[in-house]
Amino acid sequence: MARRRNTALAEWMHGHEMTAEELAERVNGALAEITGRRGTTGERTVFRCLSGESRWPQARLRRALETVTGAAARDLGFVPRGHHSTEAEHDQETPRLRRTLITGIAAAAAPLAGARRSVGSADVIRLRNGLDMLMAADDAQGASTGLERAALEGARDALALQQRGATDRVRLRLFSLAANYTATAAWSCIDARRLDQAEEHLKVALQLAGMAKDPEAAVRVWNSTAMLAHQRGRHTDAVAAAQAAQSTTACRRDPFYASLAHARTAVGHANRRARQPVLRALGHAGEALAKAREEARPSWITFYAPAELHALTAIVRDRLGDAANRKPPPTGRCPCSPCPSAVTGPRPPPDSPSPNSTKATSGRPAPPPRARSG
Fold this sequence. Notes:
Elements: H1 7-15, H2 20-35, H3 43-51, H4 59-69, H5 87-91, H6 95-107, H7 110-113, H8 121-141, H9 145-160, H10 168-191, H11 195-212, H12 215-231, H13 235-246, H14 249-253, H15 255-271, H16 275-291, H17 306-320, H18 355-362
Helix pairs in contact: 2-3, 2-4, 2-6, 8-9, 8-10, 9-10, 10-11, 10-12, 11-12, 12-13, 12-15, 13-15, 15-16, 15-17, 16-17, 17-18
C-alpha cells in the first residue's frame, strides 16, 4: 500500500510551532508519566509518523502522543492496521493501564500537564490583537488607570501561558507580548504624570524584553525611558536611554527604528543646549528615515512618520533659539536632512508640532486629534 503523508499531525505541529525534536522530547516525558520509565522516542520516529511509514504506532506511543497533543490518535491522522477497527483495542485496555494513564496525566509536571491545551499561534495572535486594541484606545481616549490595569492584565495573561506546554519560539513571543503590555502600562503612567509607577513598569518591561530576545520591544522601552527622564529633568539620562536604543539590533537592522532613536537623542541634547550633537542627531534621523521602507511594524510605533520628525525638529530648534530664523524645509523632504523622504499627507507647520511630540517632549497641552508616542 502506498504511503500517505500524515497531514493531520504535520498541521498540528505547524500550528503549535513544534519541531520533530521538541515533539519527541515531550512524548518521552509523557511516557515517563504514563509508564514510569522515560521513553526513547527520537526525531526519526516522528519523521516516520509524518511520512506515513508508521500508520498506527504502538499503544504506548499513541497514548503519549494523545497526552501531549490533547487529541485522539485518529484525529492526529493515524489509521489502524488491517481491516478491523482498533476501537476494540481501546476498549480492551486493562483497567490498570487506564488508571496509570489517568494518574499520569493528572500528576504530570506543569509543561506536560499543560500540553493537553498547548499554547500555539492562536494564543499569540489573540494577545497581540488585544494589545493593538489597547493602542487604539490610548490614541482615542488618552491615559487612564483603566488602560494601565488592562495592560497589566494582558501581561499577566501572557506570563500565565508560560506555565502551559509551548515551543521555545512561542515562549519567546509570549515574553515579548508581556514586555509590550507592560510598556503600554508604563506609557499610560507617563502620559498621566505618574512617573514613579512608570519607572517601575519600565524596569519590568526591559527585563521581559531581554527574556524575549526582542530588540524591537527593547527600543520601545528605551524610547519611553528617555521620555520619562525628560519629564523628570534628567536630560543626561534621556540622552543615554536614546543612545541605548540606537545600540539595539532593531536599530541596526531597520533605519526606521534608528531614525526614532536619533530623533529622541536630539531632543535630549537640545534640553542640554548642545547644538552640534543636536544637529548631528537630527541629520542621522532624517537620513535614516529616508532609507526606511514601508513594512509592517508594531502598533506602538505607528505614530512616527516624517511629519512627526518635522515636529520634533521644530521643538529642538526652538530650544536652541533658532526657530525664528529657520527656513521651512523643501516640500517632500525631511526637515533635518537633504535626503528625499517619502512624505505622505499634509505636513504640520513648524509652530504646530504633532500632538504626540508636544505632549511627549515639551510639556504643552496637545491639540486633538491625539497621537501616541509611547
